[in-house]
């Protein structure tokens, strides 16, 4: 018995999505994100904060007693920290700094500013709660006792608390530009391996360069204080508030620029005048020596074609109008010839 032949399917493309497709994919994802229930936002935000804090805990361990030197040591810690965002993107979760890209959907009038702020208002405290809970869990688990990790946690927390406001603000802006870029690149990748690579590189850069992330700081400052760091509640609050403002501004600016580049064109295209010039398609290149020369095709908009038809119809109606009758030709014969004068 002959088996039916099956047409072999071409392999799925492994090429990344084009930037315009990335923008539309993120815009659609943020539209659905804006409709999530409060319960889901809180739960996804909670595990999102836990994921980022796991990355912070691993980065603290990697920074302890490393012999790679200052630059390579911080780069290794950045690679370890990227575990948090990798888990969040692949396993699912909500992150306040990444959700600043909702400005893409807001600028395209796909969501309201109320829906965007609703997402941020619920996700931010959920992220903070997840980070603080993991800090308490790691502290009381005892994994930091008897080694140098606790001293590293203290040193990191005290360095963050001593940052002045302008420095923390600027570091927050630069940090979230890289975080949003990591989320953008993750939407470009088609495979799990590709997503891991494109997330790890920008996140490693922001950690190695010493930028500030508000959700990570909730964990790092808390675990430092629990380990004995000299961080006052006032310096804790000042750092978190300043870095949060910087992160938010950096994310909004990045999203606005990406919208203007990749989605703003679509808005202009949809609002193009009705009777604009037709778009001329470029001629196709000949494949052989004897290939005929083909004139470029004119791609007219349907409404332009309808306008031309209406114009031709009106011209035809004008030409089809009968001429006025000659009274000499239409005079009845029994009346005789018309007298002159």
Q: What's the short story on this structure?
A:
It contains twelve helices and two strands. The protein has 341 residues and is mainly α.
Overview of the structural elements:
The chain is an all-alpha fold. It is 66% helix and 1% strand. It contains twelve helices and two strands; from the N terminus they run ααααααααααββαα. A two-stranded antiparallel sheet has the order 1-2. The N and C termini lie far apart (104 Å).
- Beta content comes to under 5%
> How are strands sequenced across the largest beta sheet?
1-2
Annotation field: number of helices = 12
Pick out the low-confidence regions.
268-282, 284-302
Instruction: Report the biggest beta sheet as strand number plus sense, adding barrel if it closes.
Output: 2 strands, antiparallel
| SSE order | HHHHHHHHHHEEHH
Shape: elongated
Compute the average pLDDT: 83
Helix content: 55-70%
Radius of gyration: 33 Å
Instruction: Note the gap between the termini.
Output: 104 Å
Number of strand segments: 2
